[in-house]
Amino acid sequence: NLGNTLKGLGRLDEALASYKQAIALKPDSAGAHSNLGGTLQELGRLDEAEASLRQAVVLKPDFAGAHSNLGGTLQELGRLDEAEASLRQAVALKPDFAEAHCNLGYVLFGIGDDTGALNCYQRSCDLLRGIDASRNCPQETLVGISQAKLCHDIEQFEYLASRSSKKDHFSKLVSEYSKIRDETSWASATALTEVDPAFDNTLVNSSKLLHLGEAGRVNKAVNGSLDTNSIYDKYFSHEFGLTYIDDFLSSEALESLRKFLLESTIWFAQKKGGYLGAYLKDGLASPLLLQIASELRSRFPLIIKNHFLNQVWAYKYDSRASDPFSDVTGIRIHADCAAVNINFWITQSEANLDSDSGGMVVYNTEAPKDWSFDIYNNNLSRIQEELSKSKSGREVIPHLGNRMVIFNSNLFHETDKYHFREGYENRRINVTMLFGKRENN
User: Where is average pLDDT lowest: 63-67, 213-217, 367-371, 430-434?
Assistant: First the structure.
């Protein structure tokens, strides 16, 4: 338990020591071996992680969590067939294990089974966001709702009421949510707030998948006229690897993906800055997104190499960020646990009221290789100290609809200041795809 606490604090070396002490005291503790393996995996010590996780499943063959963690480690080692077997064992032991279903989806995508991957993501979504998903529902949806999230949902329900066959259903939700907004005392736009318990049955709708749009495969997802050699020249001329590309998606793909992200009620993750997140595990997955990821690998093999797809998300932002009195913001400075970061913008250019901003800032400074995820992703004071030491400058990349930024994911980066038009369809939306894992010492 001490090891788990230390791991949660980002003190991974100390966590390792506690797990090893637990194993010394009780060598047959499958849980301690599994926890040790998971921490070693996070530190990039994959061979050691595999050994610990295999010991856990020997001690407890029906330990679904250990089989799932072993599958993730084997995926990082590039042994996808073995990873698939471990993850299938995990879901066979625990059919409602949403995380294992999602991880199996990543592995199946890696071996070229897009249909199998989509089925896994759908199963994960059913478990997390289906009608009877309350016991699997992520905890963050049960502890309150932010004003920013509630206002977004009202706007989306209005949008769906004007276009969906379920006009009456969504119009009723607009009325009920507006009542919650008006009768709740909000300390800020972004803080999670407990509303009157009388509204609980209504707010369940914010944690369920009420509507999922369609985004099927198209003839070509990535623009076929992109100059690959020019992109390579620009990317590799940067010290660490960085460039951006305009007209990234084909017009057909862009229109389809934009419609899907506007219609689908998949914006469950409430972030500290008030922006909202959507993930493959609970509704973001679509044939088109997987097609884009697949085409990226085939179009840019010198950059993406043999790195596997390890995460996809979409974030949607609130136009109130331009108000100096609002606590709504974008993503603060961080690095990601990946080798290559691909970030592209879906919202039309006309929504951006300042053509010199609204995109992202990438710093010409890498996160130190010995930093844990908690430090390079969350510890703002340590990050700013590192940036002040490096004095390597930064690249400001303004928002433009259908612009894609591709860079070394170990570089610190953040959302640039943004000022977008009011209105649901003008909300800033980006999609991020992460390939490979960050290299540790």
Answer: 367-371
Rounded to an integer, the average pLDDT of 20-40 is 95
> For residues 40 and 354, what is the distance between their CA atoms, to the nearest angstrom?
45
Sequence-distant (≥ 6) Cβ neighbours of residue 134 within 8 angstroms: 204
Q: Residue 254 to residues 219, 223, 347: CA-CA distances in angstroms?
A: 12, 10, 10
Six-digit token string for 185: 């005392």
Sign of CA dihedral 30, 31, 36, 37: positive
Percent with pLDDT over 90 in the chain: 83
What residues pair up with 340 in beta bridges, in sequence order? Answer: 408, 435
pLDDT at 369 (0 to 100):
86
Residue holding tokens 């894992």?
Answer: 437
Going by C-alpha positions, the residue among 289, 403, 384 that lies closest to residue 344 is: 403
3-state secondary structure of 290: helix
Query: Residue 384 half-sphere exposure, CB side, CA atoms within 13 Å?
Result: 4
- Measure the CA–CA gap between 91 and 53, rounded to whole angstroms: 17
Structure tokens at 80: 């996808």
Assign 99 a pLDDT band (cuts: 50, 70, 90).
Answer: very high
Burial class (CB in 10 A: 0-12, 13-18, 19+), 169: middle
Residue 441 has pLDDT above 50, yes or no: no
Query: Tokens at residue 154, please?
Result: 């009202």
Contact by Cβ (8 Å): 136, 128: yes
User: Are 315 and 149 contacting, i.e. CB atoms less than 8 angstroms apart?
Assistant: no
Would you mind telling me the total number of residues written for the chain in this entry? 441
Give 277's strand partners: 269, 315
Residue 265 DSSP label? -
Ramachandran angles phi, psi of 133, nearest 5°: -95, 10
For residue 367, the SS3 value is coil
pLDDT of residue 12: 85
Task: Determine which helix (DSSP H) or strand (DSSP E) holds 434, and give its type and residue range.
Answer: strand 429-435
- Tell me the per-residue pLDDT of 153-196, one tens digit each, with 9 for 90 and over: 999 999 999 997 899 999 999 999 999 999 999 999 999 999 99
- Which strands form 404-408's sheet, in the order they lie side by side? 242-245, 404-408, 340-345, 429-435, 309-316, 276-279, 269-270
**Dist CA 175 CA 126 (whole Å):** 27
CB 109 within 8 A of CB 239: no
